[in-house]
């Protein structure tokens, strides 16, 4: 099979997402999509709903729907932007930050342990992936 880099990256991202969904889904747990949203929000907060949607590569209505349960659970705060009444600003609450770090870190540790147990060179993988992300971001 002759796959290009983009095909391999897409497949890896999809498989990681699916593995994370299997481990984090549940009646009381955050879903993988919610973990990803909270992590992205932590990186760019405070931000508008529109900017958050752009960062996650989803539509504005999709981000609006995704934020509703997180707001109801007290994990995010949504306020009217004082500079523009039609814009909504989104921030993590302390509970949201804690939930993200608790769930995200345990998921990260689980993946790390599984890769190391399989003999995968995790540290090298992480180093190379970070370098690739920097290259792609600089384009």
Automatic annotation (TrEMBL):
InterPro entries named in the record: HTH_MarR-typ (IPR000835), MarR/SlyA-like (IPR039422), WH-like_DNA-bd_sf (IPR036388), WH_DNA-bd_sf (IPR036390)
Entry superkingdom: Bacteria
GO biological process: response to stress
Pfam family, one: MarR_2
GO molecular function term, any single one: DNA-binding transcription factor activity
Domain named HTH marR-type: residues: 2-138
PANTHER family from the UniProt entry: HTH-TYPE TRANSCRIPTIONAL REPRESSOR YETL, TRANSCRIPTIONAL REGULATOR, MARR FAMILY
Protein name: MarR family transcriptional regulator
Lineage: Bacteria, Bacillati, Actinomycetota, Actinomycetes, Kitasatosporales
């Amino acid at each position: 099979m002759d796959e290009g880099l983009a095909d391999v990256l897409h497949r890896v991202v999809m498989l990681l997402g699916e593995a994370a969904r299997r481990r984090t889904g549940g009646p009381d747990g955050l879903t993988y999509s919610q973990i990803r949203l909270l992590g992205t929000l932590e990186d760019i907060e405070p931000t508008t709903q529109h900017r958050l949607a752009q960062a996650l590569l989803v539509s504005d209505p999709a981000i609006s729907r995704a934020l509703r349960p997180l707001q109801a659970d007290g994990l995010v705060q949504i306020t009217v932007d004082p500079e523009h009444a039609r814009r909504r600003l989104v921030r993590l609450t302390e509970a949201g930050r804690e939930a993200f770090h608790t769930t995200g870190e345990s998921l990260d540790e689980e993946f790390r342990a599984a890769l190391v147990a399989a003999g995968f060179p995790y540290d090298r993988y992480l180093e190379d992936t970070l370098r690739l992300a920097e290259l792609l971001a600089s384009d």
